[in-house]
Amino acid sequence: MKSSQVPVARKEGLVIQETSEEVLVYDLTSNKAHCLNQTAAFVWKSCDGNNSIPEISKLLENESGSAIHEDLIWLAIDQLNEKNLLEKEMASSFAGRSRREVIKKIGLAAVIALPIVASITAPTSALASTSCACVNPGDCIAQTMCPSTVNCNPSGVCAP
Amino acid sequence: MNSAAEKSGKIVNSSNNYIAIESFGVKLSIFSARKDILEEVKDRLSRILPEELFQIISHRKAVHTFSIRSNNSAEFVLFKGRKKITYGNDRENFLKFVDWQIRLTIAEFAEARVFLHAGVVAWKEKAIILPAGSFQGKTTLVKELTKLGARYYSDEYAVLDEEGFVHPFPKMLSIRGLTDKYRQTDYAVETFGGRKGITPVPVGMILLTTFESGAEWDPELLSEGLGVIELLSHTIPIRYNPKFSLKVLNKTVNRAIIVKTKRGEAEEFAVKLLSFFENKAF
User: pLDDT tens, B84-113?
Assistant: First the structure.
């Protein structure tokens, strides 16, 4: 495990909002929004370029009052990597184990919630407000929520 | 028909060739060399936008410009700025598409407001927001809730201000299936014994629901953060103004319970929903 690595949270190009328990992050580059649960948010905020993985683990132990396995921090780092929320990609290592195996192992022992980063790609305005109105079939291609994306019926609706 | 003259470039753009409106600070114009089309677009405005929420302005002030033209292959061609948006020969379908584009432009660029694609009612001065795409039964559920005494705010948009309060957008209810399965017919909410809301109200509940025949009321409560993630799919200005949108959504969920459940028939569901809301939010 590469515990000597020091992760740095990305700050540029992000809009950040905190709810009472979670952190919302909107990536202006990819138009993706992420919701970091409390554990993931704690790890992300601790990625200040000074704290190593064992140190973040210790900080979380102090915060939660319970023993924290380093794999739990890596689980958060792995997701933050994947969502492009770190300045530099960390060489995540579960020593040949899959994320699922690690979750299974930590999940049984964890006292605090496993880190979760839920994400969504922000829709374009037209997609967010799909009306299914059409004049020709071409209007339906992008209206993916309609009953049909290939047919504009005689009522002017993207539907059979 | 002016299309021949239009194609030959003999049409001189005068203010008579435009309709321009301002709504929520969005100034847009529609150009056409055909008077009949312009008149019809104008007549339809009060059906697609609540009358008190727009005003006619000079076309010179417009920032967003649409034009309706003709070419050799289509009687109606719609441009937004210089970009061709659609074309076709069916007048009614074309005008419906124009209606959508007008509403969409207002919803995306509205000043100091965030538009969600959602139905909205208010119960005892707290709003219930029902975000959903088309064909998800938004209007049907809104109609049933207003029949039970909820105030009607919108069957299409939740209009949120920067404090997360929802404002009325009481366009006529567009109900499908009365004449055919897909065609919409517009009705005033009063037709169903409902009444419009007139003041901004805080959001008490966000209900994420999809119709499934025979589904039982089985509510799952979501956290604020996951609530925002769910709302983003229906947030029209999220790409145009993500910072403001996210701030408003955060304020909105902060006061609301966020519930996810499948739903069966709207009539029965509406009763259970209001009973749940009464118990949880007051």
Answer: 999 999 999 999 999 999 999 999 999 999
